[in-house]
Amino acid sequence: MNGKIKTAIEIAMERTSMIGELTPEEKEKIENVKKLKPLMAKFYKGKISADGLWKSLKGSKLSLLRETQLNLVESIRLENSHAEFEKRKKGILAIETLKENQNMSIIEQNLNFIVDLQKRAREEKEQAYASFKTSIERNPQAMIRTVNQGNGKAVVKLSAEDAIKQSPQWKQFLAENEKRYSQEIAKTIEKLKINIQ
Asked: What's the whole-model pTM score?
């Protein structure tokens, strides 16, 4: 496969050639992937909304509904903008309304918890940035850098913003903040997957 990641269809086709006929579940999964790929591409590119997704999936089998929701859940990241996250949330909840046995409240609760985590991560980052900025502005030496320039060295005065961006402490804070909140979101995503039935 030249180092490419194999799709579910390619794996199933290889398996078929090795052991024979696919199971009904495998056939259904392949059909779901074929239907889902173009639909989700339209959704992520903004060509259809959560309502359009709902209309496209109305009357679909439970397995396709579940596969679509899992696709949306797996695309959730800490760094999603508020608009990107809301779009995914609306899609997940719209699809849930198409199921006979709905698990709306627990799914919505988990999605709202992710919103809260994203908000807390953003607020912590903003507070830390303000604190770093105050500290740097009180210490003008923190904005001075010596840089190599040709044969010699030059002294450069940075803006507070540039000094913060170059600060190893700021970079460490960002890495720790992202790691902590990404892990929390990953745990919540696992709970969401369990509750999507």
From this structure: 0.77
